[in-house]
Amino acid sequence: MRFQRIPQNYSSPIPKPRGISVLATSPDAIPSSRWLSDLKSRVGKCIMFGLRGKQIEEAGRIAKVLGEEWRGLIAGREGFLLNKGQEGTVRWGEMDLLLNCIASVFFLAPVAEGHLNNVAYVRFAESSRVHFFSGIPPSGSSAEHTRQWRDTCTPKGLGLILKSITVDYKYPLTFPNHFTIYHRLKESVSASASPTKLLLSSLLLSTTAQRPAARIQEEIVIFDYRIQKSARLPEHMQDMLRVRWEEQEQAKRMWESRAKQVEEMVEELEKESWKRLGAVEDMGSGN
């Protein structure tokens, strides 16, 4: 597995809205994992039915949006920050060895269609979680604050320990494949009390298939290794988490608005093509 950080200068083509109120909770209205592929199929149906003039140009614009903004339309609308993810590649050695062993016995050759071992998804999430917490301090933070966040992944002081993890497998990753994995806060940090635990969500995207491969839920407990007891985050660390929460909420609303806009574009294209009253499919010409 090879991870590569997404460039920090990645920016959304959509301007950030201003004056957004930040909610204390963020209900997970998760779209279907096939939302993007279904939208592409609908555009394809319009093209196959037959388009003319401006309709062809509009179909091209929609295809361009889906091709360039697909990460935001899937991950961004769930609150994941696009420039905070990690990219990686699936290697042959990470494939399910049991499946290939069985195939070797019965077919005398490994099966290339075998999928990534399920444990690998958890390992990807672990690496992404460390990357997530290391990236919490904003640029310009003091060296001490940056060190404190980095040390949360070590047994030196305050530690963030994984209590439970749940993986909802959506799509089998196979070799060769590329993926991107994101992390986000699942709930806001209370302003009235220091948290003793954190809830996180993670999204593993297949960049080859352009669809979710897995959704992961994690519960993290805060533990002080020095006194061997559960602990609470210092106020300055809570403040940084609140800033991250606000960024997530802005991204979610921005990309949700964009997704609705794209859906309306597709619906309008359908109304002008095969849904049009009296529409007749273009069967081509024999000449």
Structure characterization notes:
This protein is α+β, with helices and mostly antiparallel strands and 287 residues long. The radius of gyration is 23 Å and the shape is elongated.
What would a concise description of this structure say?
The chain has 287 residues and is α+β, with helices and mostly antiparallel strands. The chain has helices at residues 35-49, 54-68, 70-74, 97-107, 118-134, 143-151, 235-272, and strands spanning 2-5, 86-90, 158-169, 177-185, 197-206, 211-224, 229-230.
Helix/strand layout:
Blueprint lengths: L1 E4 L29 H15 L4 H15 L1 H5 L11 E5 L6 H11 L10 H17 L8 H9 L6 E12 L7 E9 L11 E10 L4 E14 L4 E2 L4 H38 L15
Antiparallel strand pairs: 1-2, 2-4, 3-6, 4-5, 5-6, 6-7
Helix pairs in contact: 1-2, 1-7, 2-7
Question: Which key phrases capture this entry?
Answer:
elongated, seven-stranded antiparallel sheet, 20% strand, alpha+beta, 287 residues, single chain
Estimate the helix proportion, in percent.
25-40%
Number of strands: 7
* Radius of gyration using CA atoms only: 23 Å
Output the helix-strand order.
Answer: EHHHEHHHEEEEEH
Mean pLDDT over the full residue set:
83
Structural class: alpha+beta
Shape: elongated
Proportion of strand residues: 15-25%
The main pleated sheet reads as:
7 strands, antiparallel
Straight-line distance between termini: 54 Å
> Tally the helices: what do you get?
7
Q: Regions with pLDDT < 50 over 5+ consecutive residues?
A: 8-26
